[in-house]
């Protein structure tokens, strides 16, 4: 989320608490080994991926830092970071981007707000509220907001962080609509957050420069995509091309069992049809025999009566 001071026109990103905002330098890296640098936006938890990196690439130091929202792509172009976990949408020219997961949007309100009694709300429930952020950040709200429609929306105060914004929510100044992960960063007892069901979810993605992608980048992309240690060093494109074959091999026994069951069912059905077909055949033979017996009896009667004449 980008906090905007509508009065001054300045935009300020939302930082995560207690996380460095500039890349730390690794002092104890072995000579000649360049640290691998990873950036992420507020609300993204990278622990599971950094742990795997440490297990598989202990010889390559890892630098991790939080990038501000308006610099989540700039850190790549400036080569401050090798990869960046970004919150979409971003300008993707020159980048390779893989979508990772969606984030539910929530409204942050005072603890005694009417919305607090519901499990979830809609934007129409919030139409009369004052939004403490740029309305363009939440177009679903902007399009139905009373203060936007009648021109009564007042300029925002200087809001420089998510903590500042939540402070104003707690004071009853207005509301916030942000990804749930952002709301959790500044959780406090005097505010609550509830999902907004009809606001589009945001998405978190991993981005890196397409040109000049290094083996380290390919390795980290493999880790994020869930490749095993034995295959993670393969270039991502080659690994993706091989993935369908791996899936086929993996499901082979299942497919075989299904085919076997299907064949048995078809055989049973065919057997039933054959046994069922015998009955009509037997009936037809009996009918023919009956007709033949009747014909023979009639012929015998004709001979008998003819003999009498």
From TrEMBL:
CDD domains: PBP2_LTTR_aromatics_like (cd08414). The lineage of its organism: Bacteria, Bacillati, Actinomycetota, Actinomycetes, Micrococcales. Residues 1-30, 228-309 are annotated as: Disordered. One of its GO terms (cellular component) is protein-DNA complex. It comes from Subtercola boreus. Residues 300-309 have a biased composition (Basic residues). Keywords: DNA-binding, Transcription, Transcription regulation. Residues 10-24, 262-282 have a biased composition (Low complexity). One of its GO terms (molecular function) is DNA-binding transcription factor activity. Residues 235-248 have a biased composition (Basic and acidic residues). It comes from the Bacteria. This is LysR substrate-binding domain-containing protein. Residues 45-226 form the LysR substrate-binding domain. Gene3D superfamilies: Periplasmic binding protein-like II (3.40.190.10). Belongs to the LysR transcriptional regulatory family.
């Amino acid at each position: 989320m980008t906090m905007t001071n509508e009065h001054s026109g300045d935009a300020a990103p939302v930082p995560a608490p207690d996380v460095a905002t500039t890349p730390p330098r690794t002092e104890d890296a072995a000579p000649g080994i360049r640290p691998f640098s990873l950036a992420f936006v507020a609300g993204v938890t990278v622990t599971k991926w950094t742990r795997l990196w440490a297990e598989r690439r202990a010889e390559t130091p890892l630098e991790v830092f939080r990038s501000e929202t308006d610099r989540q792509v700039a850190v790549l172009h400036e080569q401050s970071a090798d990869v960046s976990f970004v919150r979409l949408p971003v300008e993707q020219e020159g980048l390779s981007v893989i979508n990772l997961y969606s984030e539910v949007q929530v409204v942050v309100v005072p603890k005694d707000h009417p919305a607090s009694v519901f499990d979830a709300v809609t934007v129409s429930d919030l139409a009369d509220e004052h939004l403490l952020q740029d309305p363009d950040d939440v177009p679903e709200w902007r399009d139905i907001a009373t203060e936007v429609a009648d021109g009564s929306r007042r300029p925002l105060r200087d809001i420089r962080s998510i903590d500042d914004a939540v402070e104003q929510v707690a004071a009853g100044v207005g509301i916030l609509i942000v990804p749930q992960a952002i709301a959790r960063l500044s959780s406090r007892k005097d505010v609550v957050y509830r999902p907004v069901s009809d606001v589009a979810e945001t998405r978190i993605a991993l981005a890196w420069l397409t040109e000049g992608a290094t083996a380290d980048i390919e390795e980290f992309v493999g880790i994020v995509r869930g490749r095993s240690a034995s295959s993670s060093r393969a270039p991502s494109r080659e690994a993706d091309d091989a993935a369908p074959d791996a899936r086929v091999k993996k499901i082979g026994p299942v497919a075989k069992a299904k085919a076997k069951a299907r064949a048995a069912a078809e055989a049973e059905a065919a057997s039933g049809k054959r046994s069922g077909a015998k009955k009509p055949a037997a009936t037809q033979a009996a009918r023919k025999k009956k007709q033949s017996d009747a014909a023979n009896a009639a012929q015998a009667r004709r001979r008998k009566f003819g003999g009498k004449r």
